[in-house]
Fold this protein.
Amino acid sequence: MTQQREPTMVAEVFRRGASAFLVKSSPVAELLTAIEEALLERVYISPSVANKIVSDLLHPYRRKESGVRLTARQREVLRLLADGKSMKFIGEALGISARTVQLHKYEMMKNLRLKTNAGIIQYAIHHGILSA
């Protein structure tokens, strides 16, 4: 039992041999269900945690975003990058230097925890940022 609800914590607990994962606020009936499942050699995860895990699996980019909001300028840069435009072209189109475009790109990637150009383009696709 824990207060933690992060999927990475759940995975680590099961890697270490646990049969169940419950949050401390779980009702007693849930604890009994978890014990019954463990005795039957089945895994049990608190429904609220299981829902978060499923949501993260179905919507991985929401998880990466983790409350990060892109500025209007970052969205413009991202839209043009995802459209395949060069840093120089974007800079000229937006009236900023190519270096500033690059800084916007790397700041977005850092904040969104994306590591590749493909990742940032996938983010743009999944968030409807691409041009029509």
Observations:
- Residues 98-112 form the longest helix (15 residues).
- The two ends are 48 Å apart (CA to CA).
- Residues 52 and 129 are 25 Å apart (CA to CA).
- The chain is about 65% helix and 5% strand.
